[in-house]
Design goal:
Helices cover about 30% and strands about 25% of the residues. With about 120 residues, it is α+β, with helices and mostly antiparallel strands. A hairpin with a 2-residue loop joins strand 2 (about 40-45) and strand 3 (about 50-55). The longest helix has 14 residues, at about 105-115. The radius of gyration is 13 Å and the shape is globular. It starts with a helix and ends in a 9-residue tail after the last helix. The model has no long low-confidence stretch (mean pLDDT about 95).
Length: about 120
């Protein structure tokens, strides 16, 4: 997990202060009241410290992350329903503090997906 944050801070050092890093267990994500949790950002799903899915939402990253669980996003290697109720399941949100900075979110998501090689890739590629 620290490696992901270091990757972000190294590549986006000049703008890293525009983001907040939110780390939650999946089971706590829906109820979280952390500042900026409703903002645009990148979400990273981790299961037993393995990167499962990287994505973004330009309005509310937490909402979109929870939709992946609801919809059981999957591929031939992994079903996200396996993450529900499991203490090995975490989500990192890298959200912008100011919604006017949301343009950075798309670039960051593309960079992280390429760098982290998640089990479930975006269908945009």
């Amino acid at each position: 997990m620290r490696e992901i944050i270091n990757t972000f801070e190294t590549e986006f050092k000049s703008i890293s202060q525009k983001f907040v890093i939110i780390e939650e267990y999946l089971e706590d994500l829906a109820a979280s009241k952390v500042d900026f949790i409703y903002n645009p950002g990148v979400y990273i799903f981790l299961f037993d410290n393995e990167v499962i899915k990287v994505g973004r939402h330009l309005t509310n990253s937490r909402k979109r992350a929870l939709e992946h669980i609801r919809d059981n996003t999957e591929n031939e290697d992994f079903e996200m329903s396996k993450m529900v109720g499991n203490k090995k399941s975490k989500v990192i949100l890298l959200n912008v503090k100011d919604v006017n900075d949301k343009h950075w979110v798309a670039a960051f998501e593309i960079f992280l997906e390429e760098k982290l090689n998640p089990k479930i890739r975006s269908k945009r590629h």
